[in-house]
Every structure is written in structure tokens, then in C-alpha cells.
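A further point concerns the way the authors explain their paired sequence and structure data. An entry of this sort, consisting of the sequence and the corresponding C-alpha cells, reads as follows:
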Amino acid sequence: MKRILSNAVSLIVVMIVLLLIIPLNTFFVDVMIILNIAVSMLILLISMNIKEPLEFSIFPSLLLITTLFRIGINVSTTRSILGNGGSAGAVIQAMGDFVLQGNVVVGCVIFLIIVLVQFLVITKGAERVAEVAARFTLDAMPGKQMAIDADLGSGLINEEEAKTRRAKIQKEADFYGSMDGATKIVKGDATMSLIITAVNFIGGCVIGMVMGGMSFTEVLSVYSLATVGDGLVSQIPALLISTATGMIVTRAVAEDSLNVDVTRQFLNQPRSIMLTGMVLAILLVVPGMPKFQLAVVSLVLMLGGWQLSRRMEEMAQPAQAQAAEGTLRMTEEEQLQAAEEENFKDINSVYSLISVEPIEMEFGYSLIPLVDEASGGRMIDRIVIFRRQYAQEMGLVIPSIRLRDSSSLNTNQYLIKIRGEEVAKGEILVDYYLALEPPNPLGEIDGI
């Protein structure tokens, strides 16, 4: 059973080909026509419920199969119409009786309208959209590939996701390229339906008048009914497939299925709905217009738009209240953040971020009296004088010097650092004096 299901499409194609060769009973012809309508309706509904075209990527191949299926049915119905004296099954008979209503001209006009709408409007537009979409998709491929490589290089996505995106881009290009060719099949199918209808009618007239001895009126009554009915049961599924083709190639930007998107976007415009109702209400003043119908439709639109507008306002009030509460909660945080940003913008505050002093001098315990002004130290005054003199003479300002004692040094040692790096180190003996020996000393002085 699983093997049969895996080869179901191949079996269906073989059966369709057999339709072109093997004559079918009218019962099986009716079954095939009903299946054709059902499959076409199913394809249309699927195309309306997908979010993006790649969810129905088999559509180009399916379009070819359904077209071949319709051709096979047309061959079978043509064989039945011409071989059974205009009898081609109950479906064609019922469709012909329902549409014609005893008037051949009306049936032919309706059939031509359906064919021309499909051929000139839907198929022509879908063909152009598919062609443009295929061209733009191919042109955008290098830019999309570069964007994926950039996201991968920056670490926004991993290698697996990058492969998935590249595969999706390739599938989109292949899909729109296939759709560009598949729309030609739909266009050819519409042309072929006109030819088949003309062949059925002309061939039926020849067979009925030459071989059956029927009058022209009888031939027209019998074969026009069958011909128009056959054309309608063939063109209605073709129209559904053409509509599905147009929907798929025009699904450019979609957040959800077509049903959900249409409902959401229409219901989000209550003012437009009310204005439409007002315009219809204005048409009531036109003489001869159906007052009741216009009034009902206008009233429904205006009431519906007003109700939608009230509902949107009610839904917006809780959201506004929540937004106000959130604003109050965020006020203090925003103030702190604003103060922090203002502090960062201040040029002078940059120096507070630097934890390392530009110039630093450390000294041992015995050297504290040289720095401490309370003990008579003049170290700080001498540094201030030196910085001022250097700025006047050299034009450069020496940064402030950090002075502090250090227990890691010997009592008489000092240490100078620039940006935390040691640049000088020495020792000063407090309570000692420097004596310079003259050429002829009078005596010796005790020292170290």
C-alpha cells in the first residue's frame, strides 16, 4: 500500500494519458468531471490559505497535471458528444440546461465571457506578475546571499540557519522561474478550450445533418446544449486554477493566510467602511436607483464601521492605561539613565573614568615631613612653582601629581610613576647634609 501511495502521481498521469485513448462510459465521464471540479476548488482554497508561495511549491507541476487532466476529459466528452448524438453525461446535460435556459445565444455569450475573462484578465495578469517576480527574484539573489554572509560573519546566525536561508532563496528563484513558464500553460489551455468548443459544435452539425439526417434547428438544439455544457464544465475548473495561479504569484508580502489578512486589514479601517456607506446613501437621490437595496447596504456599512470604530477605541483604552503606567514606572529609570548619559557627555568627566594617575610619587615614612606642610615641608609649593614655570616656558601643562606614602618602600626611599609604570627610584637621607670637599680640607667630617 505504501509503495502504491508513493507512486500515486505517476499512476494518475498514466490514467490521464489513457483518457486520451480509451473511450469512457458516460458514468465515468461524470466522475472525471466532478473530480476535476473538486481538485480545482481544492487548489484554489489551498492557494488562499498559504502564507508564502513556497508552502505550495508543487503548484507549477500540479498545474501541468491538471491541464493534462482537463484535456483528457475534453477528449472523452468530445468523443461522447460526437459519437452518442450529443449525449455526454448528466453533468454536461444539467450544466447546459441550467445555463442556456432554452436560449442558445445566452449560453454562448456566458461561455465566451468566462473564457475571455480567464484569457485576457486573470491569465494575462498572472503571466506578467510571474515574469516580473522571476526577474526580480533572480536580480535580488546576490544581495540576499551577501546579507546572509554578513549575518553569518557577525554571529547573528549560525551555519545551519545560513544554509537554510540560502536553500530558501534558491527555491524561490526556481519556483518563480517555473511559475513564469507554467502561466503559459494556463494561457494555452484557455485558447484550446475555444478550439475544442468550436470543433464540438461544427463536428456535431456535420454529423447530425450529414450522417443523422437531422434538420439545422434540431442540430442546433442538441449539439449547442452539449457543446456549451461541455465548455462550461471545462472552463469553470480552468477559471479556478487561473485564479489560484494569480493568487500565488501575487502573494508578495503576507503575514498570514489570505483570509486572515483580508479580514484583519479590512476591519482595521472602520472610517473607510463608514465613508463607503455614506457614498451609497448619497446615491439614493439619483432617480431610478433601487432605494431599498441601497439603503440596506448603506446602513449595514455605516453601522458596521461605527461598531468597529467603537471596539477599536475600547481596545485602545486599556493599552493606553498600561502605557501610562509603564511610563510612570520608567520615569525614575529614565532620569537616572539621562543623568548618566549627561555625565558621559561631559568632557571633564572622562578623566574620572581613568583609574591610573598620570604622575604619581610614593615615598617612605621618613620622607613625610618633607611633604607635610604642617611639619614645614615645602614639597607641594615647589611642585606648583615648577608646573607653572614649565607651562610658561614650554607651553605644556604637566598633569597634577599624586603624592602618597607607601609602606612597601624603605623609610628613606621615593618612587616616581607615570601611568602606573615606574620611571625613577631613589633614596633621601633625612637629617643628613651634603658636604662638598674643598681642594684643601682643614679636616675630616664624619659621614656615610
